[in-house]
Amino acid sequence: MQVFLDQVWTARWPLWDGFLLTIEIAAAAIACGTVLGCIVGIQLVFAPTLVRFPFRVYVDVMRGTPLLVLILAAFYIPSVAGLNLSATQAGILALTLFAGAHIGELLRGSLQAIPPGQAEAARSIGLTFPQMLAYVLLPQALRSALPPWINTGVELIKGSSLLSMIGVGELLLKTQEVIGRTFMTIEFYVFAGCLYLITNILLDQVGKTVERYAGGRS
Amino acid sequence: MSKTTIRIAAGIGLFALAMLQVPSASAQGKLQEVLSRGKLVVGTGSTNPPWHFRDEKGALVGFDIEVSKIIAQGLFGDPTKIEFVNQASDARIPNIVTGKVDIACQFVTVTAARAQQVAFTVPYYREGVSLMMVKGGRYADYAALKAAGNKVTISVLQNVFAEQMVRDALPEAKVDQFESVDLMYQALNSGRADAAATDSSSLRYYMKQNAGRYVDSGFSWNPQTYSCIVKQGDPDWLNFVNVALRESMTGTTFPLYKAAFELWFGETPPEPKIGFPYEFR
């Protein structure tokens, strides 16, 4: 045990860098994914059939494809097309596309769960469509979308570990590098697993707190 | 099918066709491209000592890294002008084919099947499997292990071919497979296994790290050749890399290769013989 703790201490900076990168990647993906998801969710509910169709295809393709396949596609396809993304950029792109589809779909569900009377009432008092979204529909939809949104965040933190496959130096790859040097396989995998677990539990707790303040139905 | 759907489908088809016709390489060739860029982009890993791994300070080190430096030295007279792209073993060939890296030096085993997809450079190491034992243990060398028949237990890294691989050298030995390198070495240290069988380079490195604690059985088998890989279809680039590597093993840059070999494998490679160039023997 002492030997292991010494090795953790020796490797503290690489592991810390990896941990930070994991958080940064997940944060970037959830931020970009939320913007994308809001657009997608609104289109899925309100757009005319022809405009909705590509969004539907996007959501179904993203949700029906394993995340690892998405990551490899985001890494290799742009470079064939002459666009050179770094591994981290490609990874954020893949996670963003993944998150955008999931958030779009959960926002669609939340929007459609709002009783139609709300939209009718908004229209009858003369609100324009953007006003109706901003003041009536989105506040209600976002509240009920909050728990699954936090869940998507947890998925992204876990999913970011797959980026080690394309050489992004996040927590899992940094852990593997330490294992490569120290040969302490089980100890360091358990250590990394605990870090992921603690992070996700914390994120869950933050989500629950925000939920309480936002007065969401849980 | 509506007219719109057909149009959309046709559009996607045309777009896909256009993508296929994007010129894949620049007209000037890889060697000029690398020289004008001013740095070499090398694909390699970061988790496999003594080939490519991170030291305690987080710097990329290992024999593959030294080989890359030899090539950069040849290109720019400066071994530091390299950008290493970290890649998993499965990504070695795809990253070459899609042009993400100029060259990959990541213990790539030369096989005819792989040579259909990428171009191999001249080899820089011949890997094998060796047996390592605790110093002063029950068996002194390979002959003693073999003579003991089914009384010996060999610890080995879990893998489909592991059992057969050990049987090739020790037909009667018991084989214990372990999921990770540390467990395999632990079995040896605790006496559960009489010898550990794994890549010769890994054993050499481990023995160098733990000097005086282990001995090699003196027998190695299962040869496989390591080379760098480059994209097919650019003979000038391949020839350049070949010259840089070959001369590090036979000519002017031999001191670089020798120093790397001693550092990571703990032994000295044979000096090039002066006189007739023996690689043509």
UniProtKB/TrEMBL annotation, chain A:
Organism superkingdom: Bacteria
SUPFAM superfamilies, per database record: MetI-like
Annotated Gene Ontology cellular component terms: ATP-binding cassette (ABC) transporter complex
Keyword Cell membrane: yes
Transmembrane segments: 20-46, 67-85, 185-203
Record's bilayer topology term: Multi-pass membrane protein
Record-linked Gene3D superfamilies: MetI-like
GO terms assigned for molecular function: transmembrane transporter activity
Keyword Metal-binding: no
Major location (coarse): membrane
Start and end residues of each ABC transmembrane type-1 domain: 19-207
GO process annotations (BP): amino acid transport
Family per record: Belongs to the binding-protein-dependent transport system permease family. HisMQ subfamily.
Alphabetical list of PANTHER family matching this protein: L-CYSTINE TRANSPORT SYSTEM PERMEASE PROTEIN TCYL (PTHR30614:SF0), MEMBRANE COMPONENT OF AMINO ACID ABC TRANSPORTER (PTHR30614)
Protein name: Amino acid ABC transporter permease
Automatic annotation (TrEMBL), chain B:
Cross-referenced InterPro entries: Bact_solute-bind_prot3, Solute-binding_3/MltF_N
Keyword Signal attached: yes
Pfam families on file: SBP_bac_3
Listed CDD domains: PBP2_Mlr3796_like
Keywords associated with the record: Signal, Transport
One GO cellular component term: outer membrane-bounded periplasmic space
One of the GO BP terms on file: amino acid transport
Domain Solute-binding protein family 3/N-terminal as annotated: residue spans: 39-268
Stretch forming the signal peptide: 1-27
Family that this chain belongs to: Belongs to the bacterial solute-binding protein 3 family.
Protein name: Transporter substrate-binding domain-containing protein
Upper taxonomic lineage: Bacteria, Pseudomonadati, Pseudomonadota, Alphaproteobacteria, Hyphomicrobiales
